[in-house]
Amino acid sequence: MSYVLITGASSGIGAAAAVELTRQGHRVLATGRSPEKLESVHRRMTRVAPSGLRVPDPVHADLSRLDDVEKLADIVLEHHRELDVLVNNAGVQPSRRQESAEGHELTFAVNHLAPFLLTNLLAGLLGENAGRVITTSSSTHTAAAIDRDDIQLTRRWSGRLAYANSKLANILFTTELTRRTGLPASSAHPGSIRTDLNRESPFVRLVKPFERFLLARPEKGADVLVWLATGAEGGAPRAAYYAERGPARTSSAAQDRDLAAWLWDVSENLVAKVAD
Q1: pLDDT of amino acid 196
Q2: How much is the pTM?
Q3: Is 3 an annotated catalytic residue?
Q4: Half-sphere exposure of residue 48, counting CA atoms within 13 Å on the CB side?
């Protein structure tokens, strides 16, 4: 039995993963932005939990705010003191450029800076428990074009580019995390799944009545996360990026060690400014 923390667990593949891992007998701490949705997911988790398994109370956390990221880490460190698996799943895909409370481009803040900070704050605890880290990425990373002089896209923003860059950042973070800390880390593409990730998009609203014919259920997308969280592969990854229970191809940028090291240093400076 493992102790698992999943971000972005109030809906979509995060919720599906939380329910399935609970059904398998793992203790899952679900976190998300919506207290109401979290309570609904918690009820689902409780219904499927094996007899005698206490399902941890969910924790509300808005990971667009880095101080909420720090508070979440403090809760885990103070009240739980166990962590075998961290699943960085929370993500956004806004249809217009927005900034977080700290002034960071919102997609970059939620999809990259939040998991970067949370993982680093919990790295010691994960190390003590021989833990692993899993981060939800996407095949969209192949469309990324990270500009080292404008990483937050102040000059040239589009929703697709911002999202692609953040998913590339997830893979780069994964490889650099293992290199710097030795923690087993992997990232995964869940597939084309029915979620409310890009619910603001006019196109998504247009095709929503047909999505059940075009997109897979969240449970399908959660499968690779559950597999990495519980199986031997996630404990000793052969690759930084997976899809459909196997290593998957990445772009050349995702294999750029210099870019990964640069991104880590930049991210470290950005989250340090918040801590100060």
Answers
A1: 57
A2: 0.91
A3: no
A4: 19
